[in-house]
Design brief:
The chain is α/β, with parallel strands linked by helices. The protein has 2 domains: about 190 residues, Spore Coat Polysaccharide Biosynthesis Protein SpsA, Chain A (Alpha-Beta Complex), CATH 3.90.550; about 35 residues, no CATH class. About 30% of the residues lie in helices and about 20% in strands. Strands 4-1-5-9-6-10 form a 6-stranded mixed β-sheet, sandwiched between helices. The radius of gyration is 19 Å and the shape is globular.
């Protein structure tokens, strides 16, 4: 089976300009994902899908292929799955080869590593899933006790019945993350989304699931990275 990893890295981020190449712990943000994919030793092909010439240059500095620039789906409205699908189709034409499995690795999840990728890939193959998405369990915050609040500070509970229960009696809840999405290529092309028929979730450690969209996320990711890199030390 031929496997391709696609790392989407759009250049037009608004909340953090040039987000995918900002410095994160000594390297451009996208470099962490590129190296994780390379170290996994899973893929026949790893490409970065970007519309930005500078991003392409950075990717190549880390020995990742950018055979073409993204010519469509480069806005902030189009679902990232569509950009990945188009990149796979472009790659098949460019390299004159066909892929069986597509793995999408978001460039803004720098703490997800090669072991996470290997774990998710093995689970996907062993269970013969068609679509698999990463997720993580909610931690110290309890989504069962969430509420909306309007400008007048009036609140509305999202799960009012849950307020009658102790936290330990509530079901464990999970959140999707874009860290690692996997699909069989032909089915992905048909569904046009990784949320295709019968999609499954596979759990990832919450630290590996951290992604960066704004500066608060960036500060949080740096703190998590620091703590994880100093595990076992008195920090």
């Amino acid at each position: 089976m031929k496997k391709i990893a696609v790392i989407p890295a759009r250049g037009g981020s608004k909340r953090i300009p040039h987000k995918n190449i900002i410095n994160f712990m000594g390297k451009p943000l996208m470099a962490w994902t590129i190296e994780a994919a390379q170290k996994s030793n899973i893929f026949d092909r790893i490409i970065v899908s970007t519309d930005d010439v500078k991003f392409a240059e950075v990717a190549r500095e880390y020995n990742c292929e950018v055979p073409f620039l993204r010519d469509i789906n480069a806005d902030d409205i189009t679902p990232v799955s569509e950009a990945t699908i188009h990149a796979v189709q472009q790659a098949e034409k460019y390299y004159n080869e066909e892929y069986d499995i597509v793995v999408q690795l978001m460039a803004n999840a720098p703490i997800r590593n090669q072991f996470d990728i290997i774990n998710h890939y093995n689970n996907f193959v062993q269970n013969d899933f068609d679509f698999q998405l990463s997720c993580f369990p909610f931690g110290w915050m309890n989504p069962w006790w969430s509420f909306k609040m309007n400008e007048e500070k009036q609140h509305e509970w999202i799960h009012p019945d849950a307020m009658k229960k102790r936290s330990q009696d509530l079901d464990k809840l999970y959140c999707p993350t874009g860290a690692i999405w996997i699909a069989k290529k032909e089915l992905l092309l048909q569904a046009k989304t990784f949320y295709g028929p019968g999609y499954k979730f596979h759990e990832i450690d919450w630290k590996s699931a951290v992604d960066i969209d704004d500066y608060e996320d960036l500060d949080f990711a740096k703190a998590v990275f620091y703590l994880q890199s100093h595990q076992g030390e008195n920090v």
